[in-house]
Amino acid sequence: MIEHRPFLNFLTHLVLIFGVALVVLPVWVAFVASTHTATDFSSGIIPMWPGPYLVENYTQMLDTGVSTSGTPPVGRMMLNSLIMALAIALGKIAISVTSAFAIVYFRFPLRNFAFWCIFVTLMLPVEVRIVPTFKVVADLGMLNSYAGLSIPLIASATATFLFRQVFLTMPDELVEAARIDGAGPMKFFRDILLPLSRTNIAALFVILFIYGWNQYLWPLLITTDAQYYTIVAGIKRMADAVDGLPQWHLVMATAVMAMLPPVAVVIFMQRLFVKGLIETEK
User: Is 96 helix (H, G, I), strand (E, B) or coil?
Assistant: First the structure.
């Protein structure tokens, strides 16, 4: 039952407006800072309205970057982040959906043990195993490479668990019907299971893309060549100016541009994302 009381409506809208302001205000301050000079923010008074240097600051970051911190142009760093995020998202989905398919639809010894071995790795995120992972990647010669940026982050117990739960909701009659029609395991997987899991794959892709795009510690650790800097690691290096004050107006311009691809992915895939999260039956 939905109650329509003026006070409750007012309170609801007040909470929503407060929540939106809480999220939007830091983004607005970052955008305003990116349109001023460095001295405007070092004076101690934060401007709240855009300045006249929007085009100049953004053009500088897109064309040349910040030479004093050794960061390449933003376009190069965003391309690296895009490659890393896509490799992680698509790799995780490919590995997880096939491993969940094997666990649910094939009968082999130690099947449940294999699943729980995968599930236990939830307790071993990259931050916990970062030293041995770095050693392995270094020994394989994958430092300063796209393979080194993405492969150690591809395995995902969470995605395997989610796809397993989705596949368990598929009715047995579907499997029997496919078998009667002569469909083999891979044809059933390709023509029936994957189309029915389309919304779940889309929802997971959005989550994993943002996860890959926002990676900070691992790219910072394994990249020393500026050609492989990601956008998040690049912002960190720009903020750590050694021989002078950080150029916060350029750092903020880079931060604003770094927000755009994840926002675009969420907006573009919003319908499938929501449907994939709330859909419980096939």
Answer: helix
How many whole angstroms separate alpha carbon 115 and alpha carbon 110?
9
Q: What is the pLDDT of residues 231-263, one digit of tens each?
A: 988 888 888 766 667 788 888 889 999 999 999
Helix ranges (DSSP H) in 189-247 = 194-196, 198-213, 217-222, 231-239
Per-residue pLDDT reduced to its tens digit, 117-145: 888 887 877 778 888 899 999 999 989 99
Dist CA 75 CA 63 (whole Å):
8
List the structure tokens of 48.
Answer: 């709240």
| Beta carbons within 8 Å of 198's beta carbon, 6+ residues apart | 272
Cβ count within 10 A of residue 52: 9
CA distance 176 to 182: 10
